[in-house]
Specification:
Elements lengths: L1 E4 L5 H13 L3 E6 L4 E6 L7 H5 L4 E5 L19 E3 L2 E3 L5 E5 L6 H14 L3 E3 L17 H14 L3 E4 L6 H6 L4 E4 L7 H7 L6 E4 L6 H13 L5 E5 L17 H8 L4 E3 L1 H5 L5 H10 L4 E5 L17 H17 L5
Parallel strand pairs: 7-8, 7-14, 8-9, 9-10, 10-11, 11-12, 12-13, 13-14
Antiparallel strand pairs: 1-3, 1-4, 2-3, 5-6
Helix pairs in contact: 3-4, 3-11, 6-7, 10-11
Bound molecules: phosphoenolpyruvate (PEP) and manganese (II) ion.
Amino acid sequence: MIIVMSPGATEQQIDAVVRKIAEYGCEANVSRGVERTIIGAIGDERAINQELIDAMAGVEQSMHIVKPYKIVAREWHKENTVIDISGVPLGGKTVQIISGPCSVETQVQMDTAARFVKESGCRLMRGGAFKPRTSPYSFQGKGVEGLEMFRRAADAQGLPIVTELMDVRMLDTFLEWNVDVIQIGTRNMQNFDLLKEVGKVNKPVILKRGMSATISEWLMAAEYIAAGGNHNIIFCERGIRTFETAYRNVLDVTAIPVLKKETHLPVIIDPSHAGGKAWMVPALARAAVAAGADGLLVEMHPTPCEAWCDADQALSPDELNQLMTELGGIARVIGRDI
Ligand code: PEP
Ligand code: MN
């Protein structure tokens, strides 16, 4: 940690900071300039309570030099992590496209969707049984019955499933239904109790970015999961909220290279909830793969205009097939495949 003393800091104030640093088991390196004194704390700076240092007389500001996240940081783990999702690798050379409807509706809808997902070449299927809706009067999802329908439809096609967990009390049910990937939605990115619980299970977790979360807050949320022992975490950027109202959210493509630099864990993109309109999805999906995303989460419905949730942004099966062909071309150019 680096502590910058204010220009008028007295010798006593400098000595007090040096003593405080020693109390935390660190060594102080005092550098006296013409205008101000800078104190470097050497050792395990995580032990230092920054708020207490900042509150000391004569301290102007302090900054950590070691990242507050550790397990998820590339600093400590140089190689890319490849996550094994029931036999499907995510984070390696192959870009994985996860597709399926926004929500589980009926067995027929799920059976048909699973067939289209499989035929398109996707190896993983999405679908929400528990839906986080803005209005309490909107369709809230089929619940446990939906998990059952999803599992049956996906098993018939040999597809691992991705579905959102909103309530920690449902975790055991998710494990009973052998959900292959637990999705933590945007609205729960900082639900720390939920993060701690999924940190204790041995299941891959997709951690969506909160709509107004900074990269650092997102990494810290992932660290909550990792700290419990579950390191199978996949970051999913799904658009952030800005001043722009012409589309549902702004897809933060910049987050891809930044996250790839900061973490060894896979990064995927949800172009559907970013654009909010089906016609925008292919452009955003292509941009994401070109920018280095390890996968995509794309909404597809057998008959989009009949979808119970997010009908406007669902691709049709034909549109998904077309997109898969385009993405294959982009992946090849950057030395990957689909
Ligand atoms: C979803 O993927 O079904 C979903 C609700 O997304 P988000 O949490 O990104 O809004
Ligand atoms: Mn949706």
